[in-house]
Amino acid sequence: QVQLVESGGGLVQAGDSLRLSCGTSGLTLSYQNMAWFRQAPGKERELVARIFSDGSTNFGDSVKGRFTISADHAKKMVYLRMNSLKPEDTAVYYCHVVQIVTRKEYWGQGTQVTVSS
């Protein structure tokens, strides 16, 4: 059974940093494409960052240069490092997996990030 569990969210001030973690089970990370999405109240869910099985990454335009994504295959963890946080980064952040072979998708339950000005 595949499970994704996010952690690390919280309330921070503008300019602060935060690291989100996504613990996975039931997966071999080298066979997955992993991503972080976010959804703010009244807005659609949007891509924040993605890391592919080969280690390449891409980012949403609004977070380029501020956020990084990484994966530790041995620990089965995916991380989102967020620097220079802005109030507009406030959202629920979700971990997402797409299995390369089957194209099955999985979502975590989300973790709230609130950035005060």
Structural features, described:
The chain is built from no helices and 11 strands. The model has no long low-confidence stretch (mean pLDDT 95). The relative contact order is 0.32. The chain has strands at 3-7, 10-13, 18-25, 32-39, 46-51, 57-59, 67-72, 77-82, 91-99, 105-107, 111-116.
Total of DSSP H or I helical runs spanning 4+ residues = 0
Report the strand count: 11
Mean pLDDT: 95
Helical fraction equals under 10%
User: Low-confidence runs (pLDDT<50, min 5 residues)?
Assistant: none
- Helix/sheet category: mainly beta
| Mass-distribution shape | globular
Question: Strand fraction band?
Answer: over 45%
- Using the CA coordinates, give the radius of gyration: 13 Å
Quick overview:
This protein is an all-beta fold. The protein is built from no helices and eleven strands. The strands form two sheets. Strands 2, 4, 5, 6, 9, 10 and 11 form a seven-stranded mixed beta sheet that branches. Strands 1-3-8-7 form a four-stranded antiparallel beta sheet, with no helix packed on it.
List strands and helices in order, with pairings.
Layout: E1 3-7, E2 10-13, E3 18-25, E4 32-39, E5 46-51, E6 57-59, E7 67-72, E8 77-82, E9 91-99, E10 105-107, E11 111-116
Parallel strand pairs: 2-11
Antiparallel strand pairs: 1-3, 3-8, 4-5, 4-9, 5-6, 7-8, 9-10, 9-11
Please describe the structure with a list of short key phrases separated by commas or semicolons.
117 residues; 11 strands; 7-stranded mixed beta sheet
